[in-house]
Specification:
By secondary structure, the chain is an alpha+beta fold. The protein has one domain (2-94): 2-Layer Sandwich (Alpha-Beta Plaits). It has helices spanning 12-15, 18-21, 23-30, 61-65, 68-76, and strands spanning 2-9, 35-42, 49-56, 86-91. Strands 2-3-1-4 form a 4-stranded antiparallel β-sheet, with helices on one face. The longest helix is centred in the C-terminal third of the chain and has 9 residues, at 68-76. The mean pLDDT is 95.
């Protein structure tokens, strides 16, 4: 599995509408074969910052970055951003979540 976290800093005038502005890209990506998850979260410290947590099967990431909706997002989304997004990605040997035992719920 390829696990990716990206940080997007959105221009203030678009920050409240980011989920809607990125919806087409989000929905198309979630529909891709091999997409495991593609989830946005908004920072509680910076209202202009969004985090994207996504995962793909090992063979699916290349198809993602060459898809028509990704190419479209490459032109549509950057004008709405304050800066180039930051990203971390790693290849992991499993695609399921682990329990956070330190905060186990009875």
């Amino acid at each position: 599995m390829i696990f990716i976290v990206a940080k997007f800093t959105v221009k203030p005038e678009y920050a409240d509408d980011w989920v809607e502005l990125s919806r087409e890209f989000t929905e198309a990506t979630r529909a891709e074969p091999g997409n495991l998850w593609f989830d946005w979260s908004r920072s509680v410290d910076d209202p202009h910052e969004y985090f994207l947590v996504e995962a793909f099967g090992d063979d699916a990431a290349e198809a993602h970055v060459t898809s028509p909706h990704f190419v479209k997002a490459q032109s549509d989304l950057p004008p709405l951003l304050q800066s180039t997004p930051l990203v971390r990605n790693v290849v992991m040997d499993r695609d399921e979540w682990d329990l956070l035992g330190e905060m186990a719920v009875d």
